[in-house]
What we know:
33% strand
Amino acid sequence: MENFSEKIQSLRNEYSDLDLTSEDLNQDPITQFTKWLDEAIETQIYEPNAMVLATVDENAPRSRYVLFKNIVNNNLIFHTHYESPKAVEIFANPNVSGIFYWAEIHRQVRFQGIARKADSQVSDEYFKTRPRGGQLRSEEHTSELQSPMYLVC
């Protein structure tokens, strides 16, 4: 029987078909991010807007996938219920980090910053995009609980 670490070592792929040099990168990180996100969308990657978001709970890091929703004023927008564990962790310690990973195009974007509540205009715009059933369910809660958060990266 093959050793497990040998199996893992045999999984190594070559990534030389998509070289990346500093000359290939835009100086503006948001512009570069949107370029790669567009490539991921055009490649039809499953949920290219999925990102890992890491928070800290009592000094222990916790990560989960969330869906990136927009960029407003150079801030990444994601949504969460304000009573969720991740929101509670963010309110206690707003320092977060995360990553987008698009294996099919051999790209990843790492970010870190401060997460904050988005303003009411961003929340209202998001609410309009929700399916009618989701709008009705969220009306049972205060709009404060359903507001998006954003990252200052």
